[in-house]
Amino acid sequence: MKRLLVYTVMLVLLLFVGQGCNKELELSPADKLPTDEALSNIKGVNAAVNGMYAGMRAVNYYGRNYLILGEVTADNVYISTSNGNRFLSSWKLSWVVSDGDVSGVWNTAYSVILRANNIINSVPVISDGTAEEKDLAKGQALFVRALAHFDLLRFFAEPYIVGGGTSLGVPVITKFEVGSPARSTVDQVYAQIIADLTEAKSLLDENTSDPFNASSYAASALLARVYLYKGDNAAAIAEATRVINAGYTIQPANSLAEFYNTPGAGEDIFTLKILDIQTAGSDNLGQMYRKPGYGDIRVSPDLVNSLEPGDARRVFISAFTGSASEFQNNKFTGQQGISGLHSPKILRISEMYLARAEAYAKSGNYVAALADVNAIRTHRNLAALENVADNAVLTAVLKEKRVEFMFEGQRYFDLLRNKLDIVRNCTTPGQVNPGRCTVEATSNTAIFPIPQRETDVNRNIEQNPGYKK
């Protein structure tokens, strides 16, 4: 059983070695391993908070891959036949248990959870620090622990709507210890996520001016997303409304072009800031979509055709450089003069309007749902929707969300959690054959397998159906 502990410790060490160019980490050794000495005072805890956010910036997580995997598994983009062998198994939804995309998400998210746990469990016993300082550190760690568990659940477990919460989720880890944890049920994982976010909401400030650190409103925004995925529409509406009433502003159409290259805009609720010194160079997010980067990922013509005439979001799509018959994603062109560098806007106010709209539609309040959709449309140079049949309102909401959040890693999850099949256009010229033109939302292999290394060292963990252990 000690092999799991050894592997986890080695994983964390390797992740930090891999980010050796990160000056913030070099100055913060307290966040490298869970030691009593490092986290015995508020200075060490605050350094660990920095290290926790740094872990989220890893290429296998929000630094790139997590945002891409939520797109290449769905229908907004495709992998070009001119590619560098990246994300092919995820594009084809043909993972094996040793897949690098799969293990990268699992390992990195759990290393972030480890860092969050070190903070949560150290704050009550540190020797100094004010109550406000302790609340801030613990609240941020609870928020990140919830987010990482939720992100794991989205890829490695059946959506709540499929199994009703009774199917296997992921291991819930709340402390550093030797052992071989089994998978909790989906319902149990949701319970832990909601408990963490509820506590975080009570500990953190109601701050709308600093989106680079988790706030009480960020906790509410994530709760709104979580409740929507769980199917608790009333709770989703309540949390989204709290955030909407806080004063965040929807990004106007005339400034959309640079919105994604500008961290900390008025729409941002929680943004993971990435500085120029933290660039991944050729591995930056935008480089995967554009030339002169790798440009492996092209925009689906079906998505392009779904954009209405005059939609301000058309600025994010253009003819692909060097291939005029294809389309490229221009959301992540770069920031601070670094090509393809992007600070992920993990939570923003437009999502709250569309999350509330979806929850309203599913609750039968179609007038309110359309009002929230139209709040977005009027900021995108589009006419308000009127005279929409009740049975078509939810479809209108999901279409709006597809366009608003294209390339931001949400499409795959939005389809599966609504029990909607993934349908690719297999006739698109220039794409790698996806193999599966339609993937049923209830298919066992529509979700990631548990990584082989995990099942090798942990005899208590069960593999997902459809994959060999």
TrEMBL record:
Positions of the RagB/SusD domain: 328-467
Keyword Membrane tagged: yes
Annotated GO CC locations: cell outer membrane
Domain of life: Bacteria
Location (main, coarse): membrane
SusD-like N-terminal domain: residues covered: 26-228
Keywords: Cell outer membrane, Membrane, Signal
Gene3D superfamilies: 1.25.40.390, 1.25.40.900, 2.20.20.130
Presence of the UniProt keyword Signal in the record: yes
Subcellular location field: Cell outer membrane
Family: Belongs to the SusD family.
This protein's name: SusD family protein
